[in-house]
Please model this.
Amino acid sequence: MKHFIRLLLILMVMITGTASALASESNPTPAEDSAHQYYPCVGAPATRLAINMTGRVTPGLPNNMRQDPYASSKRVGQIPGGSTFTVIGGPACSGNMTWWQVNYNGTIGWTPEGTGSTYWLEPYSGQSICTASLPARLAVGGYGKVTPGAANNLRSSTSTTSTRVGQIPGSSTFRVVGGPVCAENMTWYQVNYNGIVGWTAEGKNHTYWLEPFVCAGTPAPRLVVGGWGWVTPGLPNSLRSQPSTAYTSVKLGQIPGGQSFSVMGGPVCASGYVWWQVNYNGTIGWTPEGQGSTYWLEPGS
Model:
């Protein structure tokens, strides 16, 4: 009898251990699940790109640009073979491909780096348009900012002797509307800073005065100061007194889904969001543009 009870206990322990092992296999921990679901990307070639880098589509077929990082997402454009772009977001893994959010001539979308052992995108050396200047890093339609410290002059044309029309303080953001142009051994961009349009130099010798505007974990900014926007259909967007989710930033109201507003200021990166100062029916406050690859705000027509 004792021998039978001992065998029964051993059998119960074995069954319990087997059940636990099966449970562990069928219900991986969140950390394990995330590693397989997101990064590294199984089935994709090792990534060679990075945010702020200039990339190029390999010669031959074009690469599709999509609204979100997956193959069934809406196509927003194409990048011809041999053409260059600026990497502004990513990476994201979907469909055994690594996706990057890029800016190609002002069009922003997601494009895959390759599949299997084949690359469709490659790093680009960023050859400078000026032999004596640094490689250009900005893109028309995108945003940049002056590096912390001294202000950058805004001029009427691409020359240090042209009329100064304003200044952009250190760390301030602007929208790139033209360029690049090589003049006086410097790369120049036409930019819009708070409604003032002028030309400003990217840097000189081995020093950058301008850099791409990047806010980690957010979609690339698409709104324009002086223009209109609207909240995507669905949930409302909060309006706050400051570009922050901290308790010191008072909630002033909400903008319902589908409603429009005018853009007065921004962009500002804070609390993990890109913020815009907007006017909604006379209430002025700050509201976030989105998170991850999801936009909560859309540019108006």
